[in-house]
Amino acid sequence: MDELIDEDATGLAERLRAREFTQAELVEIFVRRIEVMNPALNFMTNTAFDRARSKAETIPLDAPFAGVPILMKDMIDIGGLPRTDGSRFMLKNVPERSVQYVEAVEAAGLNILGQTNVPEMASFIITNNDVFGATRNPWNPDYSVFSSSGGSAVAVSAGVVPMAHGTDGAGSNRLPPSATGIFGMKPSRRRMRSGEADGRHDVAKTNQMLSRTVRDSALAFSLTESFSGDPFPPVGYIAGPSDRRLKVGLIVDDGKLITTDPEISEAQRKVALLMQNLGHEVEETPWPVDANEMADAYAKFFGGKVGALKTAVEAASETPLMESGLLTRFLASNIEASAAVSAEDIAEGRAFLDRLEPVFAEVFRRYDVLLAPVAPVVAPPLFEHTPDELYTDELSRYVAARLKFTSPINFAGCPAMSVPLSWSADLGLPIGSHFIAAAGHDGLLYELAYELEEARPWRDIWAPFSLKYVPV
User: Family per UniProt (predicted)?
Assistant: First the structure.
């Protein structure tokens, strides 16, 4: 068995500094883990083994992570490595330069070993695409892990790496962690170093790690956040819980768009009781966003983003979009449907999304944090829908329903986290708890995460299809 399986990235760095093993030896251990587990779970797109081997022993041991290998989501520019976004159209895309966030990851002493699977251009709720295939849940391979940081979540849950990178544009660093029993954090908007090639910040998407332990995520956060002070002063490294007691708003589902699974609602009520037992004040409160209006606004917003992609694909293939073969049927037909969205509709959708920031700001005048489900369902069956299907309004609502509690937070700019505190008796899958704080209050969430990790430890709870039980 892998004797290092129980170590998190912080612990591995400490052992590297103690010279219990070398960076090169650790790279080979992680390579072997990938070779053993990827054929069964399919969480990788590209490997960068030789790159990692060449960097081993060149990373200073006094760097915070001292050369610990990491996997990056295949949706961020890493100089010299392919970035496919899970799409046939992007297979030849090799960025020349790393974005600021990746530069900070490597400066922290993390050694990039490869990239993880995503749905094509993050366009669907199940991690599956026509190029690399479907990623399986290590708790039950017949189920998905949602999306879009699905490959990264599986790699961590299966014990391949203690920490992996994710991006979150509508829930991607919370949904897969919820379905795999790990910790996931979405920072405040503009909190982290830029993950975009032009150095700007996306209106919805942020970068941060998925991990088995809170301290790994907190340390990575402190090393990759922006130090500009615009719009928030740096948080720094949060090392443990706070004595501060919080006022918590427990979200009661309104049944709009989809009714939350009773098992999930009950799990959150039990977590609310845990919070009360820890001395926090909890009261029920309604979800402040109309899910039907959110679904409509998000569809219009998406319609305003894809015109350039349609043009690029048709120029590259010299054929109409649906005949190009460069995009999945789902994404191509979604783009075609979006062409019917008018400029007025797009503006209307964006106006609704822009109003979410003051809506949540008002909520956080009454509460320190909200406690809600991550998703209204535990996890989708792996092939409940596939990228070969044509886009329909019904399928659009299927996706929007599963983003009901996560996507509004991105447009509100708030930080949020998925904490693995419950498991489904029916499916045997994890159920995350979704904690949301006011914009800029990322540190408060980390303090709470440490407290919950201590109160209900999850680090030693392993998926059946993980390296805890599979010999390497």
Answer: Belongs to the amidase family.
- Confidence band of 166 (pLDDT split at 50, 70, 90): very high
Read off the pLDDT band of 339 (50, 70, 90).
confident
Bridging pattern class, strands 163-168 and 183-186:
unpaired
Share above pLDDT 90 across residues of the chain, in percent, rounded to a whole number: 96
What's the CA gap between 178 and 267, in Å, rounded? 12
Q: From 350, 127, 358, 102, select the one nearest 208 (Cα to Cα).
A: 102
What are residue 70's DSSP bridge partners? 112
pTM over 0.85: yes
Instruction: Give the tokens for residue 334.
Output: 């979604």
Residue 307 has pLDDT above 90, yes or no: no
The fold of the 9-291+351-455 domain, in CATH, is: Amidase signature (AS) enzymes (3.90.1300)
Is the CB of residue 455 less than 8 Å from the CB of residue 274?
yes
* Strand (E) or helix (H) holding 103: helix 100-107
112, two tokens: 């990039």
Residue 89 identity: F
Q: For 251-264, what is each residue's pLDDT tens digit?
A: 988 899 999 999 99
Q: Where are the domains of the chain?
A: 9-291+351-455, 292-350
Task: Give yes or no for a contact between 123 and 335, defined as CB atoms under 8 angstroms apart.
Answer: no
Q: What is the DSSP letter of 375?
A: -
One of 87, 123, 144, 148 is an active-site residue; which one? 148
Question: Active-site residue among 144, 147, 172, 338?
Answer: 172
172 as an active site residue: the answer is yes
Which residues partner with 419 through β-bridges?
433
Residue tagged active-site, from 55, 73, 186, 205 = 73
402 with 125: CB under 8 angstroms?
yes
At 182-226, the pLDDT tens digits run 999 999 999 999 999 999 999 999 999 999 999 999 999 999 999
DSSP tag of 88:
G
pLDDT tens-digit readout, 316-329: 999 999 999 999 99
At residue 270, the 3 state secondary structure works out as helix
Pairing mode of beta strands 430-437, 416-423: antiparallel
Backbone conformation region of residue 318, classed left if phi is above 0, alpha if psi is from -120 to 50, else beta = left
Q: Read off the pLDDT band of 285 (50, 70, 90).
A: very high
